[in-house]
Amino acid sequence: xxxxxxxxxxxxxxxxxxxxxxxxxxxxxxxxxxxxxxxxxxxxxxxxxxxxxxxxxxxxxxxxxxxxxxxxxxxxxxxxxxxxxxxxxxxxxxxxxxxxxxxxxxxxxxxxxxxxxxxxxxxxxxxxxxxxxxxxxxxxxxxxxxxxxxxxxxxxxxxxxxxxxxxxxxxxxxxxxxxxxxxxxxxxxxxxxxxxxxxxxxxxxxxxxxxxxxxxxxxxxxxxxxxxxxxxxxxxxxxxxxxxxxxxxxxxxxxxxxxxxxxxxxxxxxxxxxxxxxxxxxxxxxxxxxxxxxxxxxxxxxxxxxxxxxxxxxxxxxxxxxxxxxxxxxxxxxxxxxxxxxxxxxxxxxxxxxxxxxxxxxxxxxxxxxxxxxxxxxxxxxxxxxxxxxxxxxxxxxxxxxxxxxxxxxxxxxxxxxxxxxxxxxxxxxxxxxxxxxxxxxxxxxxxxxxxxxxxxxxxxxxxxxxxxxxxxxxxxxxxxxxxxxxxxxxxxxxxxxxxxxxxxxxxxxxxxxxxxxxxxxxxxxxxxxxxxxxxxxxxxxxxxxxxxxxxxxxxxxxxxxxxxxxxxxxxxxxxxxxxxxxxxxxxxxxxxxxxxxxxxxxxxxxxxxxxxxxxxxxxxxxxxxxxxxxxxxxxxxxxxxxxxxxxxxxxxxxxxxxxxxxxxxxxxxxxxxxxxxxxxxxxxxxxxxxxxxxxxxxxxx
Length: 702
What we know:
Layout: E1 3-6, E2 9-12, H1 19-25, E3 49-52, E4 59-60, E5 79-81, H2 85-98, H3 116-124, E6 147-149, H4 159-168, E7 174-176, E8 183-185, H5 199-203, E9 209-211, E10 224-229, E11 238-244, E12 247-253, H6 266-270, E13 284-287, E14 290-293, H7 296-307, E15 315-319, H8 325-337, E16 342-344, E17 375-379, H9 383-386, H10 388-400, E18 406-410, E19 421-424, H11 427-434, H12 440-443, E20 450-455, H13 456-459, H14 464-478, E21 488-491, H15 497-502, H16 514-523, E22 528-532, E23 546-551, H17 556-560, E24 563-566, E25 575-578, E26 584-587, H18 600-610, H19 620-630, H20 646-653, H21 675-678, H22 681-694
Helix pairs in contact: 8-18, 11-14, 14-20
């Protein structure tokens, strides 16, 4: 490992890193604008200048590797200075040049208070300028409904260009012109067609790219900030929720290398306006075919009257895609107290069963395991729509070494932003891989860490159980099930699904699944159905059943309900979720629920008391203590408890019938996948923009 002397202190650093990274390891802060640790090196802002002893000029520390330095003539390690007069004057000069054309509109700039240029001008610049030329002016560019542009402020760091090209995989941003005439643009002035485009706002070190929906809404020092977890998909991205008074005003990413690194999807970032519209803020009861506002006592009485003396087998409970562990656990205990085995969390009908072992429904290798994979088989999934952050991780792995990663796809063909080999549409192709006869196995021969990713498009079918077993066989044939590597992965689309499966919220002995509950309701054999945020159902199939809907938004389930119990959205409660890896994560309450809405577990607890089946906990801590006692791995927040791989070996030995139909992704519209997203005006606008683009519009039609 190379040794350096940084500001008179000798340090040992890893091979191959840059000077700016070495200085950071030594605890020395280096200013920068263009450099970002997750993007390629541009070396064009020159703010990170340092002095290397023996070199006549300051060097850009982001573009100089530690292995490029030579020891001194007396054999001493290379010496770097980051705070002497030479470096100080060099940085002041760079800052002076950067501000030559920059408009000093800090009081009205939406980036004020969070601007890198502002901070570094104070720390490394000085209070005057030797230039009195007229400042240049650049027209703003149209980048879509999410990103506001003030390109006169742009300092050409090119972070946005590199992110869109390298991480998002959409080569729509670039530079035209040279020198002072250089401009960042989309060339054709159309909105960016990427599910990750909003991240360029975080990357922009000045106020050139700002959040259009959030513009001039608030200043950062007015906001309360809490760390939470995203529930728009099953990835479990770490987020920060910023609120003021009783409103969420924006959602930003937090750094979590094991899951989302520091990116989030546009849906995650901008769904916040859906948190305040179409809200259920009071209980409702259906009378004479119409819903009327009611009190909590009236709502509970209507439910109690309906359940009085009811056979538990005529009661069913379905958990939706956004439910947290606490309310799922409470509802399961209530259903058991009522004597009902009819509980299910698989709204889409996915054939996943905790009885097959936890490893049969987890992303066993972990999302970070993608970085180590050398072969990936995608079965019945379009990760760009189902888990855009995970898809970006696959692209990152591809870019790290394009020749060492082979990707095969079974299912629908789609633009995934990295090359892949299309193998086939459905189970026939998967069967050939499982029995070792497919050519793809020769392509990946010698792969040390192969990976199979099975999506809900393959599992949410009548033959899903057979497909799951066949996928396990395929993983075994590929060599993905080893002692030190479990490459069998199930990619969920619902944030609540993994946790509910961990809690065994599936039909009990003799119980009915979602389809069975709906069939029974159609025939009149199911009298009461409890929907806990379940909106992705064919509600018309509920027949004449008495429907209790508990949730936060007036979506499909609420429209069919006979009693509505208003719950809290994910930003309005302290709750636990388990992501597709099986990692328990904590979401913190940012604001309180509106009106008379309450936290969901409290609603179930209060209803249990009214029904004479009082659940044995009065506080969140008591509920969690009991839940952790029953399921100890859920207490290990932020940690993946590895599942037993032997279950997959047993699964691979089973046989199941499969049909001929091809796999199809369960997500037709990335922006409208849940009640909160469907209530969002921003998501509706994005959905319309993408629908128009798919129809062949260019965005320039007048």
